[in-house]
Amino acid sequence: MCYEYRVNSNCTERHSAWASLGCGLLCVTVLLSACTPSGDARQRTTPPTNRAAPSTNASAGGPPCTTAVDALAAPPAGYRLVGKDVAVPDAPVMSVESSGEADPAARLFAKWGLVVRAGRVVDLRVAPGWQDKARLGWGGTGTPAATATVHACPPEDEQAQWMAFVGGTWVARAACVPLTVTSGGRDYRVDLGIGVACDKNTTP
């Protein structure tokens, strides 16, 4: 498999549904269209790809399934757990680009993959005071928003325990963005560097 920090000659054969996104979109941990040479480890923020088929069926009475791009046995290397059901990059997402969005809070975009335990529904939102500075979105939800709900419907492969989602964070400017993750009835705070590292000068 083509995993984070490892590039081999077989990577170009492992195309998935991501191929249409093009080679320029962070092909470092999830295989989007082709593997590129390894660079700054801080930019490796997309989960790896395997052959498990994500489910698109919503569970009875639950919200619609969020569109996943992969099913994983475990969160990939380079990710940290937030509570028990969510994993996010453990390094700053340094690659940001102009988004083209009219919303001033979404002027820049940093792409990173969100990983959620299969079968869980989680809510993510920017922390109070950041509603005019940052936006979120995964699974092709459309317009970036200050809140996002992700329903990780179980995959057809019952051995896969985690689902991976394409998306990221939009910001007015590079910053250490505080996020609140709600899972299993509990709130968790996580700071994520977007374009800059989180340190004593940038942590809110």
Estimate the global geometry from the Cα principal axes: globular
Rg estimate, integer Å: 16 Å
Could you give the count of β-strands?
A: 13
Strand content: 25-35%
**Low-pLDDT ranges:** 1-44, 49-56
Region (Disordered): 38-64
Signal peptide: 1-34
Keywords: Signal
Biased composition (Polar residues): 44-59
What features would you describe in this structure?
This protein is mainly β. The protein has one domain (11-194). It contains no helices and 13 strands. The strands form three sheets. The chain has a five-stranded antiparallel sheet, with no helix packed on it. A four-stranded antiparallel sheet has the order 4-5-11-8, with no helix packed on it. It has a four-stranded antiparallel sheet with strand order 9-7-12-13, with no helix packed on it. The radius of gyration is 16 Å and the shape is globular. The protein starts with 69 loop residues before the first strand and ends in a 10-residue tail after the last strand. 44% of the residues are buried. Mean pLDDT is 78; it is low at 1-44 and 49-56.
